[in-house]
Amino acid sequence: MLSLCCLLVAIASVSAGGNSKSGPPVEGFFVTEFLKLVLIPTRIIVHIDVGTHKGIVGGSRAQNCQFPSIVYLEIFNQPTDFSYSACGGTLVDATHVLTAAHCVEGKVRRIKVNIGSNNKRSPGSQSTTVSKFVIHGGYVGTKYVVKNDIAMLTLNTRVREARCVKFAKLASKGETFGTSRCIAAGWGKFAYKGQSPDQLFKVTLPAIPADVCKRRSKMRISDGILCAGDFTAGGTSTCQGDSGGPLYCRNRSYQTVLAGVTSFGSRCNGEVSAFTDVGYFRDWIDSNLVTTITVSQIGHIPQIGYISKAKRNSSEDC
After folding, report:
1. What whole-number distance in Å separates Cα of residue 150 and Cα of residue 131?
2. Nearest by Cα to 33 from 53, 9, 52, 14
3. pLDDT per position as a tens digit, 132-162
4. Which of the residues are catalytic?
5. Using one digit for the tens of pLDDT, what is the confidence trace for 169-205?
6. CA distance linking residue 4 with residue 115, whole number of Å
7. Residue pair 176/227 in contact by the 8 Å Cβ criterion
8. Where are the domains of the chain?
9. Is the whole model's pTM more than 0.90, yes or no?
């Protein structure tokens, strides 16, 4: 399939380096344990496909232009144009979208970005495509643990702010939200194995302090995760179909900021949802907004350059 010379293939085990993981599996993450080759310069890294994306349960339909920074991502596999997944994302400036790492992990051929529309079937006013993306190098997505689930997409064309298109204000470095009431939005399913809507939906979720979430959640909560929701089954939550979408919260100055990126949760049953904490990863985000990265065509990814800027563990070194 690939014509490569002088490269070593680093095989990562399903347990992320061969060590057995303690604690219960991450509920709601249905891991297809087949190996996917993700080509980056000088090496091939084997990744695991984390197949659950999340959406809205128990919410309500969003008003037109209510969330002008949210975007809908349609992700196409290679070598064909089979549309294998869809995610949400958040527009953070004229050329960048923040989303979840597991949304773009794997052999991505191209990504369409629908901007400025609540209807995922209707092209937005400034829809475009992605030229390259960066996945956090410390990203782990297995049945037992998910961490550093964040990625930055670079757009092919510049986006202009308009009535229904705005850049999100990011949470400050280290900013926390206590028990503030936050809002998650997306096009995900209404129930586990349910249907996904064409229209954007929203749900109000209270933020949960990190120490409380780690102590009470059945899921494995690592640093860099922001929890929202409650511990009562059957309530509101995120669900399948919209990973990578935004969690908006109000800060101490009463400004609405992007506080989280939808990551994982418990089978759409109304329990706590987990989001990648934007304030925790603010340094990583800022570095990928100001740094110009030039990527040539890599392997069998003719339209999108994949970069991992992290230090690799010993099992992945060439």
Report:
1. 17
2. 14
3. 999 999 999 988 889 999 999 999 999 999 9
4. 102, 149, 243
5. 999 999 999 999 999 999 875 544 556 667 899 989 9
6. 38
7. no
8. 181-277
9. no
